Amino acid sequence: AVVSTQSTGYVALVSTTVETSNPEAELEPGMRLLGPIVEKFVSVSDLMVPSDDGKDDNIFISSSFDATTHFETTCEDIIKIYEKITGEPFDFATLDSKLEEFKNLAE
Hints:
Elements: E1 2-4, E2 9-11, H1 23-33, E3 37-39, H2 72-86, H3 94-106
Antiparallel strand pairs: 1-2, 1-3
């Protein structure tokens, strides 16, 4: 939904996991919280999940996006795929040194 204030507008996301035959009605309580809406886009997508873990054929497929608007489950899915591929958990501590390398290259 694109919501407009007097001077500017902002984009808001309202999402849900569909539980009825009327998904737009399920979103209505969240939409009301936004106030006047200038433009609204409604989309319903099936939630897809891989049929196997990918270890037999080395083809690793992520799940499709779910109702979380902050992509938490998508990030968790990517971390799980990384571990399946490498056999090791992702070490976030290595990101600090990589970021420093990129900063030095940019200078």
